[in-house]
Amino acid sequence: MNVYPSHRFGLALWRKWSASHPVSLRDFHESGQRGKLDLPAQLLPSSSRMRACASTRDEIARALHGLPWDMSEFCGQGADAPPAPLEILVGKRPGTRSTARIRRHRCQLNLPRGAFLEIAPGVRLSSPELIFAQMAGSLEFGELLALGYELCGSYPVTRGDGVLVRRPLTTPERLVAFLGQLEDARPVKLARSAALQVRRKSASVMETEVAIVSLTSRRRGGLGLPEGQLNEPLRLSEKGRRIARQKRIVGDLCWWERRVVVEYDGRASHSEEGSRIRDSRRRDALQVEGVDVTTVTGAQFANVYEFSELMAAVSKKVGKRFRGWAPGQIERHMKLRREVRKFHNENFGGDF
Which long-range contacts (CB under 8 A, 24 or more apart) does 16-20 make? Predict the structure, then answer.
Protein backbone atom coordinates (compact mmCIF):
# COMPACT_ATOMS: atom_id res chain seq x y z
CA MET A 1 0.00 0.00 0.00
CA ASN A 2 1.09 3.58 -0.69
CA VAL A 3 0.49 6.52 1.60
CA TYR A 4 0.09 9.98 0.06
CA PRO A 5 0.88 12.66 2.68
CA SER A 6 -0.58 16.06 1.82
CA HIS A 7 -1.33 19.56 3.12
CA ARG A 8 0.26 20.45 6.48
CA PHE A 9 1.49 16.92 7.13
CA GLY A 10 3.12 16.85 3.70
CA LEU A 11 4.72 20.24 4.36
CA ALA A 12 6.15 18.99 7.66
CA LEU A 13 7.72 16.02 5.86
CA TRP A 14 9.24 18.27 3.20
CA ARG A 15 10.79 20.40 5.93
CA LYS A 16 12.39 17.27 7.38
CA TRP A 17 13.59 16.15 3.96
CA SER A 18 15.04 19.57 3.17
CA ALA A 19 16.94 19.73 6.46
CA SER A 20 18.29 16.20 5.99
CA HIS A 21 19.56 17.02 2.47
CA PRO A 22 21.35 20.32 3.17
CA VAL A 23 23.59 22.28 0.84
CA SER A 24 26.60 24.40 1.62
CA LEU A 25 26.07 28.11 2.06
CA ARG A 26 28.52 28.73 -0.79
CA ASP A 27 26.60 26.48 -3.21
CA PHE A 28 23.36 28.17 -2.17
CA HIS A 29 24.78 31.63 -2.85
CA GLU A 30 26.12 30.55 -6.24
CA SER A 31 22.78 29.05 -7.30
CA GLY A 32 21.02 31.57 -9.50
CA GLN A 33 18.27 31.20 -12.02
CA ARG A 34 20.41 28.63 -13.80
CA GLY A 35 22.00 27.23 -10.67
CA LYS A 36 22.98 23.61 -10.27
CA LEU A 37 21.33 22.75 -6.96
CA ASP A 38 19.28 19.60 -7.47
CA LEU A 39 15.67 19.89 -6.34
CA PRO A 40 13.53 16.99 -5.08
CA ALA A 41 12.07 16.66 -8.59
CA GLN A 42 15.56 15.78 -9.89
CA LEU A 43 16.47 13.47 -7.01
CA LEU A 44 13.32 11.40 -6.38
CA PRO A 45 11.08 9.06 -8.44
CA SER A 46 7.86 10.77 -9.49
CA SER A 47 4.33 9.83 -10.51
CA SER A 48 1.05 11.54 -11.24
CA ARG A 49 -1.45 8.79 -10.48
CA MET A 50 -2.55 7.42 -7.15
CA ARG A 51 -2.48 3.65 -6.75
CA ALA A 52 -3.23 1.34 -3.80
CA CYS A 53 -3.87 4.21 -1.39
CA ALA A 54 -3.32 3.43 2.26
CA SER A 55 -6.26 4.62 4.32
CA THR A 56 -6.41 2.82 7.65
CA ARG A 57 -4.26 3.84 10.58
CA ASP A 58 -2.32 0.54 10.49
CA GLU A 59 -1.60 0.86 6.76
CA ILE A 60 -0.41 4.42 7.19
CA ALA A 61 1.76 3.56 10.19
CA ARG A 62 3.43 0.70 8.29
CA ALA A 63 4.26 2.95 5.35
CA LEU A 64 5.57 5.78 7.52
CA HIS A 65 7.76 3.32 9.42
CA GLY A 66 10.06 3.30 6.39
CA LEU A 67 10.90 7.00 6.71
CA PRO A 68 14.42 7.78 7.96
CA TRP A 69 13.22 10.17 10.68
CA ASP A 70 11.68 9.83 14.12
CA MET A 71 7.95 9.73 13.34
CA SER A 72 6.64 9.49 16.90
CA GLU A 73 5.56 13.15 16.83
CA PHE A 74 3.38 12.43 13.80
CA CYS A 75 2.07 9.01 14.75
CA GLY A 76 0.61 10.17 18.05
CA GLN A 77 3.14 8.48 20.30
CA GLY A 78 4.12 10.28 23.45
CA ALA A 79 2.88 13.32 25.32
CA ASP A 80 4.35 15.74 22.78
CA ALA A 81 2.28 14.49 19.83
CA PRO A 82 0.74 17.50 18.03
CA PRO A 83 -3.04 17.97 18.04
CA ALA A 84 -3.17 18.43 14.24
CA PRO A 85 -4.16 15.24 12.39
CA LEU A 86 -2.15 13.45 9.74
CA GLU A 87 -3.39 14.57 6.34
CA ILE A 88 -3.35 12.16 3.40
CA LEU A 89 -4.91 11.83 -0.03
CA VAL A 90 -7.14 8.84 -0.63
CA GLY A 91 -7.99 9.19 -4.32
CA LYS A 92 -11.35 9.52 -5.99
CA ARG A 93 -12.99 6.49 -4.45
CA PRO A 94 -14.97 6.92 -1.22
CA GLY A 95 -12.72 6.05 1.71
CA THR A 96 -12.79 5.74 5.44
CA ARG A 97 -14.06 8.84 7.22
CA SER A 98 -11.65 11.26 8.80
CA THR A 99 -10.91 10.92 12.49
CA ALA A 100 -9.29 13.08 15.13
CA ARG A 101 -5.88 11.65 14.16
CA ILE A 102 -6.21 11.15 10.39
CA ARG A 103 -7.74 13.58 7.94
CA ARG A 104 -8.43 11.99 4.58
CA HIS A 105 -8.70 14.27 1.54
CA ARG A 106 -10.36 12.83 -1.54
CA CYS A 107 -8.38 13.97 -4.57
CA GLN A 108 -10.71 14.93 -7.42
CA LEU A 109 -8.23 16.75 -9.68
CA ASN A 110 -6.41 15.43 -12.72
CA LEU A 111 -2.86 16.06 -11.59
CA PRO A 112 0.11 17.05 -13.76
CA ARG A 113 3.20 14.97 -14.23
CA GLY A 114 5.39 14.82 -11.14
CA ALA A 115 2.57 15.53 -8.69
CA PHE A 116 3.95 12.93 -6.25
CA LEU A 117 7.54 12.23 -5.25
CA GLU A 118 8.57 9.00 -3.53
CA ILE A 119 10.65 9.93 -0.49
CA ALA A 120 10.67 6.34 0.84
CA PRO A 121 9.22 3.00 -0.32
CA GLY A 122 5.44 3.33 -0.21
CA VAL A 123 5.52 7.04 0.81
CA ARG A 124 4.54 9.19 -2.17
CA LEU A 125 4.55 12.73 -0.96
CA SER A 126 2.63 15.53 -2.65
CA SER A 127 5.25 17.54 -4.54
CA PRO A 128 6.21 20.96 -3.13
CA GLU A 129 4.22 22.54 -5.96
CA LEU A 130 1.14 20.46 -5.12
CA ILE A 131 1.56 21.25 -1.41
CA PHE A 132 1.52 24.95 -2.33
CA ALA A 133 -1.78 24.48 -4.16
CA GLN A 134 -3.25 22.42 -1.30
CA MET A 135 -2.30 24.99 1.33
CA ALA A 136 -3.99 27.75 -0.68
CA GLY A 137 -7.29 26.36 0.59
CA SER A 138 -6.50 27.32 4.18
CA LEU A 139 -4.07 30.27 3.99
CA GLU A 140 -4.49 33.96 3.34
CA PHE A 141 -2.52 35.58 0.53
CA GLY A 142 0.33 36.82 2.74
CA GLU A 143 0.65 33.45 4.46
CA LEU A 144 0.80 31.72 1.09
CA LEU A 145 3.50 34.14 -0.06
CA ALA A 146 5.56 33.33 3.04
CA LEU A 147 5.18 29.61 2.30
CA GLY A 148 6.29 30.17 -1.30
CA TYR A 149 9.41 32.03 -0.19
CA GLU A 150 10.21 29.19 2.20
CA LEU A 151 9.77 26.50 -0.46
CA CYS A 152 11.99 28.44 -2.87
CA GLY A 153 14.53 29.45 -0.21
CA SER A 154 17.20 27.92 2.00
CA TYR A 155 16.70 28.63 5.67
CA PRO A 156 19.41 27.57 8.17
CA VAL A 157 19.41 23.91 9.19
CA THR A 158 19.80 24.95 12.81
CA ARG A 159 19.64 28.38 14.41
CA GLY A 160 22.99 30.11 14.14
CA ASP A 161 24.44 27.56 11.69
CA GLY A 162 26.38 29.52 9.09
CA VAL A 163 27.72 26.56 7.10
CA LEU A 164 24.76 24.48 5.89
CA VAL A 165 21.29 25.52 4.78
CA ARG A 166 18.16 23.59 3.88
CA ARG A 167 17.92 22.44 0.29
CA PRO A 168 15.46 24.48 -1.78
CA LEU A 169 12.34 22.49 -2.62
CA THR A 170 11.18 24.27 -5.77
CA THR A 171 11.45 27.52 -7.75
CA PRO A 172 8.95 30.27 -8.58
CA GLU A 173 9.02 29.14 -12.20
CA ARG A 174 8.14 25.56 -11.25
CA LEU A 175 5.29 26.79 -9.04
CA VAL A 176 3.82 28.88 -11.85
CA ALA A 177 4.20 26.09 -14.43
CA PHE A 178 2.62 23.42 -12.19
CA LEU A 179 -0.29 25.59 -11.10
CA GLY A 180 -0.96 26.51 -14.71
CA GLN A 181 -1.76 22.85 -15.40
CA LEU A 182 -4.33 22.50 -12.62
CA GLU A 183 -8.04 22.88 -13.16
CA ASP A 184 -9.52 26.22 -12.15
CA ALA A 185 -10.74 26.45 -8.56
CA ARG A 186 -10.68 29.30 -6.05
CA PRO A 187 -7.64 27.99 -4.10
CA VAL A 188 -5.77 27.30 -7.34
CA LYS A 189 -6.43 30.84 -8.57
CA LEU A 190 -5.13 32.24 -5.27
CA ALA A 191 -2.05 30.03 -5.51
CA ARG A 192 -1.36 31.21 -9.07
CA SER A 193 -1.62 34.84 -8.01
CA ALA A 194 0.74 34.29 -5.07
CA ALA A 195 3.25 32.25 -7.09
CA LEU A 196 3.77 35.20 -9.44
CA GLN A 197 4.92 37.29 -6.44
CA VAL A 198 7.31 34.69 -4.94
CA ARG A 199 11.06 35.32 -5.20
CA ARG A 200 13.82 32.73 -4.90
CA LYS A 201 16.76 32.40 -2.50
CA SER A 202 15.57 33.83 0.80
CA ALA A 203 17.94 32.68 3.53
CA SER A 204 15.90 33.53 6.62
CA VAL A 205 12.45 34.35 7.91
CA MET A 206 13.27 38.03 8.28
CA GLU A 207 14.79 38.25 4.80
CA THR A 208 11.50 36.83 3.56
CA GLU A 209 9.48 39.46 5.43
CA VAL A 210 11.61 42.34 4.16
CA ALA A 211 11.45 41.02 0.58
CA ILE A 212 7.70 40.37 0.64
CA VAL A 213 6.86 43.79 2.04
CA SER A 214 9.25 45.51 -0.39
CA LEU A 215 8.73 43.62 -3.66
CA THR A 216 5.09 42.53 -3.59
CA SER A 217 2.82 44.59 -5.84
CA ARG A 218 1.07 47.61 -4.34
CA ARG A 219 -2.29 46.08 -5.26
CA ARG A 220 -1.47 43.23 -2.89
CA GLY A 221 -0.18 45.47 -0.09
CA GLY A 222 3.53 45.60 -0.86
CA LEU A 223 5.62 48.64 -1.69
CA GLY A 224 6.02 47.52 -5.29
CA LEU A 225 9.76 48.07 -5.67
CA PRO A 226 11.40 47.05 -8.97
CA GLU A 227 12.43 43.41 -9.34
CA GLY A 228 15.37 42.61 -7.07
CA GLN A 229 17.43 39.52 -6.25
CA LEU A 230 17.96 37.85 -2.89
CA ASN A 231 21.33 36.58 -1.72
CA GLU A 232 23.03 37.14 -5.03
CA PRO A 233 26.85 37.41 -5.02
CA LEU A 234 28.73 40.39 -6.44
CA ARG A 235 32.17 39.59 -7.85
CA LEU A 236 34.62 42.15 -6.53
CA SER A 237 37.31 44.01 -8.40
CA GLU A 238 40.93 43.42 -7.47
CA LYS A 239 40.89 46.43 -5.14
CA GLY A 240 37.60 45.31 -3.57
CA ARG A 241 39.04 41.85 -2.98
CA ARG A 242 42.06 43.25 -1.18
CA ILE A 243 39.84 45.32 1.12
CA ALA A 244 37.20 42.65 1.83
CA ARG A 245 39.76 39.80 1.83
CA GLN A 246 37.34 37.73 -0.24
CA LYS A 247 36.36 37.41 -3.89
CA ARG A 248 32.69 38.26 -3.59
CA ILE A 249 30.07 39.84 -1.39
CA VAL A 250 26.53 38.52 -1.08
CA GLY A 251 23.68 41.01 -0.78
CA ASP A 252 20.42 40.39 1.09
CA LEU A 253 18.21 42.26 -1.40
CA CYS A 254 20.15 43.61 -4.31
CA TRP A 255 20.05 45.39 -7.63
CA TRP A 256 23.68 44.91 -8.58
CA GLU A 257 23.19 46.29 -12.11
CA ARG A 258 22.16 49.55 -10.41
CA ARG A 259 24.84 49.21 -7.74
CA VAL A 260 22.22 49.22 -4.94
CA VAL A 261 21.79 46.77 -2.07
CA VAL A 262 19.56 46.53 1.03
CA GLU A 263 20.97 44.69 4.04
CA TYR A 264 18.88 43.49 6.96
CA ASP A 265 20.70 43.77 10.29
CA GLY A 266 18.77 41.99 13.01
CA ARG A 267 21.62 41.58 15.46
CA ALA A 268 20.93 42.86 18.93
CA SER A 269 24.61 43.57 19.59
CA HIS A 270 27.51 44.67 17.44
CA SER A 271 30.11 44.31 20.17
CA GLU A 272 31.89 41.23 18.83
CA GLU A 273 35.22 42.46 17.52
CA GLY A 274 35.48 39.97 14.64
CA SER A 275 32.03 40.81 13.28
CA ARG A 276 32.67 44.52 13.58
CA ILE A 277 35.90 44.27 11.60
CA ARG A 278 34.30 42.12 8.87
CA ASP A 279 31.39 44.56 8.56
CA SER A 280 33.81 47.47 8.23
CA ARG A 281 35.78 45.71 5.49
CA ARG A 282 32.56 44.81 3.71
CA ARG A 283 31.32 48.42 3.77
CA ASP A 284 34.66 49.72 2.52
CA ALA A 285 34.75 47.18 -0.31
CA LEU A 286 31.23 48.04 -1.41
CA GLN A 287 32.11 51.72 -1.36
CA VAL A 288 35.09 51.02 -3.63
CA GLU A 289 32.75 49.13 -5.98
CA GLY A 290 30.42 52.14 -6.10
CA VAL A 291 27.56 50.31 -4.35
CA ASP A 292 24.94 52.25 -2.41
CA VAL A 293 24.09 50.35 0.80
CA THR A 294 20.88 50.78 2.80
CA THR A 295 20.87 49.00 6.15
CA VAL A 296 17.52 48.10 7.72
CA THR A 297 17.32 47.19 11.41
CA GLY A 298 14.56 45.23 13.07
CA ALA A 299 13.25 48.39 14.72
CA GLN A 300 13.15 50.23 11.39
CA PHE A 301 11.32 47.38 9.69
CA ALA A 302 8.73 47.32 12.48
CA ASN A 303 8.07 51.05 12.00
CA VAL A 304 5.92 51.06 8.85
CA TYR A 305 6.46 54.72 7.98
CA GLU A 306 10.20 54.74 8.64
CA PHE A 307 10.65 51.57 6.60
CA SER A 308 8.55 52.88 3.70
CA GLU A 309 10.64 56.07 3.60
CA LEU A 310 13.86 54.05 3.49
CA MET A 311 12.55 51.85 0.71
CA ALA A 312 11.12 54.80 -1.22
CA ALA A 313 14.66 56.15 -1.42
CA VAL A 314 15.90 52.74 -2.56
CA SER A 315 13.15 52.57 -5.19
CA LYS A 316 14.23 55.93 -6.60
CA LYS A 317 17.85 54.76 -6.79
CA VAL A 318 16.86 51.72 -8.85
CA GLY A 319 14.74 53.73 -11.25
CA LYS A 320 11.18 53.85 -9.89
CA ARG A 321 9.64 56.71 -7.96
CA PHE A 322 7.57 55.62 -4.97
CA ARG A 323 4.12 57.19 -5.36
CA GLY A 324 3.23 57.34 -1.68
CA TRP A 325 0.20 55.83 0.01
CA ALA A 326 -2.87 55.61 -2.21
CA PRO A 327 -6.36 55.38 -0.61
CA GLY A 328 -6.65 52.01 1.11
CA GLN A 329 -2.99 51.19 0.51
CA ILE A 330 -1.87 51.41 4.13
CA GLU A 331 -4.68 49.05 5.18
CA ARG A 332 -3.62 46.51 2.52
CA HIS A 333 -0.01 46.94 3.60
CA MET A 334 -0.77 46.25 7.26
CA LYS A 335 -2.90 43.25 6.31
CA LEU A 336 -0.03 41.79 4.28
CA ARG A 337 2.39 42.29 7.17
CA ARG A 338 -0.01 40.63 9.64
CA GLU A 339 -0.57 37.61 7.40
CA VAL A 340 3.14 37.05 6.77
CA ARG A 341 3.99 37.41 10.46
CA LYS A 342 1.14 35.08 11.42
CA PHE A 343 2.54 32.33 9.18
CA HIS A 344 6.03 32.74 10.61
CA ASN A 345 4.86 32.84 14.22
CA GLU A 346 2.83 29.66 13.73
CA ASN A 347 5.54 27.79 11.86
CA PHE A 348 8.81 29.10 13.28
CA GLY A 349 7.87 30.61 16.63
CA GLY A 350 8.30 34.25 17.54
CA ASP A 351 12.08 34.12 18.13
CA PHE A 352 13.51 35.07 14.74
Answer: 16/69, 17/119, 17/125, 18/166, 18/167, 18/168, 18/169, 19/157, 19/166, 20/68, 20/69
